[in-house]
Write a structure and sequence with these properties.
This protein has about 170 residues and is α+β, with helices and mostly antiparallel strands. Helices cover about 15% and strands about 35% of the residues. Strand 7 and strand 8 form a beta hairpin. InterPro entries: DUF4265.
């Protein structure tokens, strides 16, 4: 697991780019009105499996199946989530003046032993985590709460399920 920069020029063989429309809040977050995610086409122009961690899109995770619609200019837009993969998406912003000194790599290193993958992005000073359904969710959630209570970071639950919500820390 390493920190990576998003390159809009990068491509993945046999993948398509799917745009997700976002609803920025009154405080201007997220700072964009749509997000492009890589996806693996499953049916001709209709279903796509998400294949990277969302930075901003809510209620979507790696492995989810989404129905897409193609606009007149050829852009694929996510219309609805058809099925959830069971993975959770968690976003973390490490505090620059906290014990981790804002290090995105330190966040990634903390979660890696728990089987959690992620990416850091310098532009927004944040980390996006993909939490597979087969890892110890209690340990992941406990680490998130510990980091929050000890001033390491703040976090957001971008896509979670009942198993995650049932864990009380």
């Amino acid at each position: 697991m390493t920190e990576q920069e998003i390159s809009p020029q990068s491509t993945k063989a046999n993948h398509v780019r799917v745009r997700f429309l976002l609803q920025p809040s009154q405080d201007g977050w997220p700072p964009v009105d749509n997000e492009g995610l890589w996806g693996i086409p499953l049916t001709e122009g209709e279903l796509v499996q998400v294949d990277n961690i969302p930075w901003f899109a809510r209620n979507v995770a790696v492995g989810d199946i989404v129905r897409v619609s193609t606009s007149n200019n050829g852009t694929l837009w996510a219309m609805e989530k058809i099925s959830w993969s069971g993975a959770c998406t968690i976003r973390i912003i490490p505090f620059p003046d906290g014990p981790l000194a804002g290090s995105r790599q330190a966040v990634l290193d903390a979660f890696s032993p728990l089987g959690v993958d992620g990416e850091g992005i310098e532009q927004f000073g944040m980390v996006a985590l993909s939490v597979p359904p087969d890892v110890n969710l209690h340990e992941v959630k406990r680490l998130l709460h510990r980091g929050e209570s000890e001033g390491w970071w703040e976090y957001e639950e971008g896509c979670i399920g009942d198993a995650w919500e049932s864990i009380k820390i």
